[in-house]
TrEMBL record:
This is Unnamed protein product. SUPFAM superfamilies: FAD/NAD(P)-binding domain. It comes from Aspergillus oryzae var. brunneus. It comes from the Eukaryota. InterPro entries: FAD/NAD-bd_sf (IPR036188), Oleate_hydratase (IPR010354). Residues 1-24 are annotated as: Disordered.
Length: 191
């Protein structure tokens, strides 16, 4: 496997048949998720493709794919599960260190994640669902599924049936109201 230095020089110097120098190349990337943004950063840094030659096509209004969470208390929130990208070694940290922060000049995406994580992720790292309580927002513990015995039996019966046996029934045909008030259902319905 060639080293980074040798592969970079071959990209910039080899202009033989079928190869173009990076500044004569247009790159089109479909989607603006983390993988696409990572590809764009590596094309800029490792293959010397000028940023203006990289075109990212996205149908949504905001880049970032499944990592974007946004909103406010008046209009509501759009939180996608798994919104905080995990640090998976030095490669991820290095990548996030070259991506500028969307909101803070002179900071990087890595700075935003680390600083946010130092005060918020400790409390929310195991939180999937929040509820309004008299003193503010409260955490719903997903490990406390609060399914009664009858709900558990109905769940077992339903998952034991073949798909054909279920026919065109609806989920409400298989469970009592208590099931739909459980944390189990809340977690399942919001996945």
């Amino acid at each position: 496997m060639p080293s980074r230095k040798s592969s970079r020089s071959s990209l910039t110097q080899n202009t033989g048949r079928g190869r173009r120098p990076p500044d004569k190349l247009d790159v089109w990337i479909l989607g603006s998720g983390l993988a696409s943004l990572t590809a764009a950063v590596h094309l800029i840094q490792e293959a010397n493709v000028p940023p203006e030659k990289i075109h990212i096509l996205e149908k949504l209004a905001v880049a970032g794919g499944g990592t974007i969470s946004e909103g406010d208390p008046v209009n509501g929130y759009n939180y996608r599960a798994g919104g905080m990208p995990p640090f998976s070694g030095s490669a991820m940290e290095e990548l996030l260190s070259v991506v500028p922060s969307r909101t803070r000049k002179g900071k990087t995406a890595r700075d935003d994640i680390v600083e946010f994580g130092s005060h918020a992720l400790n409390w929310t790292s195991h939180t999937r669902l929040l509820t309004r309580r008299s003193h503010g927002l409260g955490r719903i513990d997903p490990h406390k599924i609060n399914l009664g015995l009858r709900d558990r039996i109905e769940l077992f019966v339903m998952v034991s049936k073949a798909e054909k046996a279920l026919g065109r029934t609806r989920i409400k045909d298989h469970f009592n109201e208590s099931f739909f008030r459980s944390n189990y259902w809340l977690t399942l319905a919001t996945t």
